[in-house]
Amino acid sequence: MDDVKRRAYRSSIRRGDAPKLICAAAHRLFSTKGYLATSIEEIAAEAGVARPTVFTAVGRKPAILKAVVDQALAGDEAPMAIAERTWWKEALDEPDPVRSVQLHARNVCWINQRAAPLLKALEAASTADPEAALLWQEHQRQRRAGMASFVASLATKTTLRCDEQTATDTLWTLVPSAYLRLVQDLGWPIEKFQEWLADVLRRVLIE
Fold it and tell me: Which residues have C-beta within 8 Å of that of residue 160, sequence separation ≥ 6?
């Protein structure tokens, strides 16, 4: 655990704060070290809590991973699906197709700024851990459903350049792969990526 900066153990921590601290610590560690290489002991040390507190406050490592992924995707701890979020519905409800695509690109950037490194770790873990594999499969299913929902909405506002399944496949393929390659690997500013993504989607999807 030499590469983990230990935080002082705080025995006086409020019980209600433990889940938030644990999830924040796990997010940092999963994103940098990977899920499989991160231990419960490291999560506890990073969060500044006792090891048993990790289990009582959040659960086993797969439960922690699910909680961290859910929070990263949604942006907070509120028990509300992304499809019900105001910022997500704004893109679907926007009547102008070009502006709708721009808002979708914005939403994609918001999600990936929070979750892309974590999802990369989850995908890697899914090849070796059955519970991580189930979580990854469910994430892929939900992500595809979200893309299909946006495409169906866009199809009511304009003529698409391709059928809805192909459009959904295109959205599903681009993100988070393009985000990881351009923003993380090549260092594109997020503003440049968002503008590029909106332009690509407009050219690919809209007649």
Answer: 151, 154, 167, 205, 206, 207
What are the residues facing 206 on neighbouring strands?
A: 160
Q: What is the pLDDT of residues 139-188, one digit of tens each?
A: 999 999 999 999 999 999 999 999 999 999 999 999 889 999 999 999 99
How confident is the model at residue 14, as a pLDDT?
Answer: 58
Residue 86 structure tokens: 């105001």
Is the pLDDT reported for residue 26 higher than 60? yes
CA 17 distance to own-chain centroid: 23
Token pair listed for 34: 């990977």
Query: CB-hemisphere CA count at 13 Å for 32?
Result: 13
CA 167/CA 28 separation, integer angstroms = 34
The b/e string for 145-157 (b: 16+ C-beta within 10 A; e otherwise) is: ebbbebbebbeeb
Calpha distance 126→188 (Å, rounded): 28
Instruction: Write down the mean pLDDT value for the chain.
Output: 90
Dist CA 26 CA 131 (whole Å): 17
Mean pLDDT of 15-26: 89
What domains are there in the chain, each with its CATH number? 15-59 (1.10.10.60), 74-205 (1.10.357)
Residues of 163-195 as b/e, b for ≥16 C-beta within 10 angstroms? eeeebbbbbbebbbebbbebbeeeebeeeebbe
